[in-house]
Amino acid sequence: MGTRAVTSTGGVSDTLDDTTQTVKDKVSDAAATAKQKVSDVGRQATDKVDEKRGPAADALENAAATIHEKAENLPGGETVRSVAHSAADKLESTAGYIREHDVRAMLTDVEDVVKRNPGPSLLIAAAIGFLIGRAFRED
Questions:
Q1: d(CA 32, CA 44)
Q2: CA pair distance 33, 46, nearest whole angstrom
Q3: Is there a single domain that holds both residue 87 and residue 127?
Q4: How far is it, in rounded angstroms, from Cα 58 to Cα 65?
Q5: Are 90 and 134 in a shared domain?
Q6: For the chain, what is the radius of gyration of the CA atoms?
Q7: What is the domain extent for residue 120?
Q8: 3-state secondary structure (DSSP) of residue 138
Q9: % of residues, the chain, pLDDT over 70
Q10: Which residue, 39, 51, 81, 83, has most beta carbons within 10 Å?
């Protein structure tokens, strides 16, 4: 009888071990599938953003050209014209940056800036969050 109890207990234990392993395998498979889906969605989003880089750079360059043209007729003297030209130059520089860097490189640059300046980055993130919240808030 003692042998049967051990065999019976051993059988239950083996069944539990098998069931536990099956559950672990299913959870692992589900996690791998979810990870792959998230990766695919991220890749698709990155591809879409990369597709829009050219048109965004074009729009910035057009805005810069318009500012340069209009700057000459601005009232307020040389200082105002200088500020306008400076802003247009920054837009042109940004357009060049967008053309030369893909999304991954831009994200890496943002991460570097945040690491070097965590306080101001946190304040900017809070301000952006506030503005987005205000934009979506219903009155």
A1: 18
A2: 20
A3: no
A4: 11
A5: no
A6: 29
A7: 103-139
A8: coil
A9: 91
A10: 81
Structure tokens at 79: 């200082």
User: Does 84 lie in the same domain as 48?
Assistant: yes
Distance (Å, whole) CA 38 – CA 42:
6
Length, in residues, of the chain: 139
Amino acid letter, residue 119? G
> What's this model's pTM, rounded to 2 decimal places?
0.57
Q: Could you identify the residue written with the tokens 């750079």?
A: 57
DSSP 17-69: HHHHHHHHHHHHHHHHHHHHHHHHHHHHHHHHHHHHHHHHHHHHHHHHHHHHH
Q: What is the pLDDT of residues 11-43, one digit of tens each?
A: 677 787 888 888 888 888 888 898 898 888 888
Tokens 């991460």 belong to 111
**114-134 CB burial, b ≥16 within 10 A, e <16:** eeeeeeeeeeeeeeeeeeeee
- The residue assigned the tokens 């498979």 is 29
Residue that has been written with the tokens 């101001």 in this structure: 120
